[in-house]
Structures are given as structure tokens and as C-alpha cells.
């Protein structure tokens, strides 16, 4: 549904789902890759109510590093918005590079 919403909102945004990326040592599968002009964002959708938030963040950071994309969103969809709907970690530093990540709960 999210994919359809974005496509209706703008024809200039390119959306790819289940994107395979092959690194020198590993294979990755990105839930969604959104491209607008020269900007790219990885979105990873995760089940709400899990206690694996830290490992999900590590997974997203792995994807950002492997693809050399600087922006990523970790999204925990749920039916009822909560008071902490958007939690933003503006920067994650790794190997002297900066990656921007956001968490939507």
C-alpha cells in the first residue's frame, strides 16, 4: 500500500521493492529503495512489538554501508499512532562516514 501511495503522489519518485544487492562477501535484500533525482533512501519494514530494535538498526546500517547510500528509515508499522511516532537518530557514524537514519514507530 505504501508503494502505491508514493507512486500516486509523484511520478518522479522511483520505487523498487525487494531489491537485491550483491556485495563482495554477502547478498542483501532491501525491503524498499526509493529514488528521487540523485537522492536514495532505504526503507526497512519490521514487525511492531519486537524486542530486536538494536539488531534491526544494525541491519539497516549494514545495508547503508554495503550500498553506499547515506539515508535509511526503519519503520515499524502499526494501526494506532503513538505519542512517540517519529524517533530520529540524525547521524550514525561508521568508519568516518556519516549515515542518516530515522525510526518510525
Overall 3D shape: globular
Order of helices and strands: HEEEHEEE
Q: What is the annotated CATH architecture? A: 3-Layer(aba) Sandwich
Largest sheet: 6 strands, mixed
- The percent range for helix content is 10-25%
Ends apart, CA distance between termini: 17 Å
Task: Kindly provide the radius of gyration, computed on alpha-carbon positions and rounded to a whole number of angstroms.
Answer: 14 Å
Topology:
Elements: H1 2-9, E1 13-22, E2 27-36, E3 39-45, H2 53-67, E4 71-75, E5 86-94, E6 97-104
Parallel strand pairs: 3-4, 4-6
Antiparallel strand pairs: 1-2, 2-3, 5-6
Write structural notes for this entry:
The chain has a single domain (2-104), classed as Trna Endonuclease, Chain: A, domain 1, CATH 3.40.1350. The mean pLDDT is 79. The chain contains two helices and six strands; from the N terminus they run αβββαβββ. It is 22% helix and 47% strand. It is α/β, with parallel strands linked by helices. Strands 1-2-3-4-6-5 form a six-stranded mixed sheet. The protein starts with a helix and ends with a strand. It has helices spanning 2-9, 53-67; strands at residues 13-22, 27-36, 39-45, 71-75, 86-94, 97-104.
Give a summary of the structure in a few sentences.
By secondary structure, this protein is an alpha/beta fold. It has two helices and six strands.
Amino acid at each position: 500500500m505504501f508503494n502505491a501511495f508514493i507512486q500516486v503522489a509523484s511520478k518522479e519518485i522511483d520505487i523498487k521493492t525487494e531489491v537485491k544487492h550483491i556485495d563482495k562477501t554477502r547478498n542483501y535484500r532491501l525491503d524498499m529503495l526509493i529514488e528521487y533525482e540523485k537522492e536514495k533512501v532505504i526503507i526497512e519494514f519490521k514487525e511492531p512489538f519486537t524486542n530486536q530494535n538494536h539488531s534491526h538498526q544494525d541491519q539497516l546500517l549494514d545495508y547503508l554501508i554495503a550500498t553506499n547510500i547515506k539515508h535509511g528509515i526503519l519503520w515499524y508499522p502499526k494501526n494506532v499512532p503513538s505519542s512517540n511516532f517519529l524517533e530520529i537518530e540524525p547521524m550514525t557514524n561508521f568508519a568516518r562516514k556519516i549515515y542518516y537514519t530515522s525510526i518510525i514507530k
